[in-house]
Fold each of these.
Amino acid sequence: MELADLYRDVIVDHNRRPRNFGRLAAATHSAEGNNPLCGDKLHVFVEMKDDVIRDIRFEGSGCAISTASASMMSEAVKGKSRAEATALFASVHGMLTRHDAATDPGLGKLAALAGVREFPMRVKCASLCWHTLNAALAGAAAPVSTE
Amino acid sequence: MAAVRDLPPAFDVERLRRDFPVLSRQVNGHPLAYLDNAASAQQPEAVIGAVADYGRSHHANVHRGVHTLSQEATALYEGAREKVRRFVNAASTAEIIFLRGTTEAVNLVAQSHGRPRLKPGDEIVVSWLEHHSNIVPWQLVCEQTGARLRVVPIDRRGVVDFDAYRALLGPRTRIVALAHVSNALGTVLPIRDYVAAARERGITTLVDGAQAVPHLAVDVQAIGCDFYAFSGHKMYGPTGIGILYGREPLLESLPPWQGGGDMILSVSFDRTTYNHLPHRFEAGTPNIGGAVGLGAAIDYLGTIGIDRIAAHERKLLEYATRELAGIPGLAFIGTAPEKSSLVSFTIEGLHPHDLGTVLDSQGVAVRTGHHCAMPVMDFFGVPATTRASFGLYNTRAEIDALREAVLYAIRMLR
């Protein structure tokens, strides 16, 4: 269990300078997520056109893992179809929770989050944004929670 | 020289540390610096050994058999009750009820005392500092009865506003439930004044003493409260055992909390007669080993002296406050002049959960989060804080380790 595996440079960088941070005026879908244990709050805004994520923004407050994960997710899903984003979530989820799984090469930069699985208390931090994106795409009315 | 022999040994923290086996552990390659005592304190060998000895040599059910083991277990269990009575200076062991912990004690009072008496429009007063366990049981009974919860405000230091409290006490106030010491901020309430103001008006008082008993001498008769609740594991005892003290005349008037064995004198399908105090509130086989361990913790604290512990912890608090204050971007949350030995803080640009993870990598155990006191977090406008809480075995070197680990986290993440 090495700290450097958790706080990789790319994660620290995305926490310091989160990409796609803010609100999205043209959003067609949005959802709120929160992690009651940590007090993390996240709002994800998505502009969908022809079933493709044309643009995405997020805002909220959270730890470095939660902020970096949301930032990296926003980069990864932009331009992806709904089905591609869902498949990516499945890959990320597998990486965060299964020790035996080989990391999907399609994850790209998201593979930096692999170290989180060594810190079970922090898996929810990394997955909150993905659950929130899912809720936004599904048009869920109620905020999602990691609990 | 006789007088010298009568004095307890001087407070020697290094000697005391050897009483706690876990303190010699390494965590992530570093010596453990356990600074999460407000969540749960570690157990000395005296407690671990007492529980093990009970399990090895004396276990049986209490108040039931005539055989030797049952008599021994009963004597140990009731002996622990007498230790608790002396520890808080209750008038009688009838006033000492063994429960799972403070949370269960508050729920018992809310349901057995509050629920049958409260009418719509009646009021229960708590402070803004309360732990969720002294909020939610009252909200439940409010839903059941139509009573209302009123909250005493605090100021930016985390001090409860006594004048606002007195102004809140009105003709409909039935119960006042207050933390003696705040778990999130460490604020110590001048509890006698708060209880006296309620008693003048005939209002029932409950004091949540979970954070008080490990740090200061508690005398329930001097405080004058109706109920006082605390937990074993915050005072170096086992988890799953706690105490509700209640004034005997008041306890006598309460209906039972749970039904079952041990809380009855006779049972038939026509009529059941409830047992005497305190057994009426102890349905089912209790946590005997836990009670034995709590008794051992009280003995252990007695050999050191709670005033000596308080003096040691006061020095730690002063040292920690001074050493951490210089860290860039650090803000203390909770700066009451009367504080128990904990520091709660935020660091600009560094989330408490990241800080907690980095500190753990350096062997430093702290609590990060809302400390089961979300209204306090909302008041200060923070989602969470980092809390380092000190106990009798902590040292300046551990506070130095905390400071170094915080600086390391800042270099790494900010």
Note: Helices of chain A lie at 3-6, 9-16, 64-77, 82-97, 123-138.
Amino acid sequence: MTAALLTLAATSGHPTIPDVGVFAVAAAIVIAGAVGVVVARNPVHSALMLVMTLFGVAVLFVLQQANFLAAVQVIVYAGAIVVLFLFVIMFLGVDREEDIRAEPLRGQRPLAIALVVLGTTGLLLLGQVSKWTTGQPSVAGSDTGAPNVNLLGKSLYTTYLFPFEATSALLIIAVVGAVVLARRPPATSAEDAVDETPTDDVVTDRTPGAPEAPGTPGAVTTGAVATPAGADVDPADTEVDA
Amino acid sequence: MSISPAWYLGLSTVLFAIGAVGVLVRRNVLIMFMCVELMLNASNLAFVTFARTLHDIGGQVLVFFVLVVAAAEVVVGLGIVVAIFRRRASANADDLHLMKG
């Protein structure tokens, strides 16, 4: 793989020392963060490693004169998407260490890694023998060296105006869909009340002894709202018992 | 003269491969989502590289759309995860083998 890259790299001119340094550091950050996402046992650590990778990719965007996209990358990905991930992780309470050495399916990991290595090698070899371009003229406008934001904005609001407007519809649909999906179903019938029972058991498992806290017998029906108060009372109760 | 595009494309390939391994190997739904984000970032890096190499701003426009679609995908996907977790109390993909809730 490295040999193929070296032969590819040898076909162009010599880069300057600072460019090489910035690229090497950013590439190391990207790879380390990506490996960290995959091997971290705690989902919170995975999310933080994802931030590291996203910053590295943003640096590589700057290095290729895509300044606007680098800013959007940091704001949207590191600022919004990862925060959403962290919010859901902590909302669900799955921020526990998990044992990733246990293999649920025998032979799955070697097979997966072999498949990916095979596909990657094939892709690199394909890059060696094929041409990158089709020779078709550009429809989006050429990169004439004008400021990046000007070029991108002009292309977005002229050539790609309809897709740009369609993304607004997509975002609205996504917001409405998320609200509908994550909405708690109204517990009006007895069937819904039965469905809610496993959830209550999980809450009990996560904070053991919380519903048994003294002084809150009437607040049990309020569920999640009463849990912090119960959790505050509970340690003192166990200490007295001990 | 700046770095050769081949290095960026090689890095993008490696990043995509790591993300693909993560999706195939990990069983936690949230981490599988993060690995999908890694793969999207790898494609974004390749798009920006081609935009610079071919002097065509279309690659960067496409990255913009990928960002929007990724944001929408994460919002809906995490909504589904929350809805599943409310029923099943598990973020493990192996536990989700029934379409019935």
Note: The two ends of chain A are 62 Å apart (CA to CA).
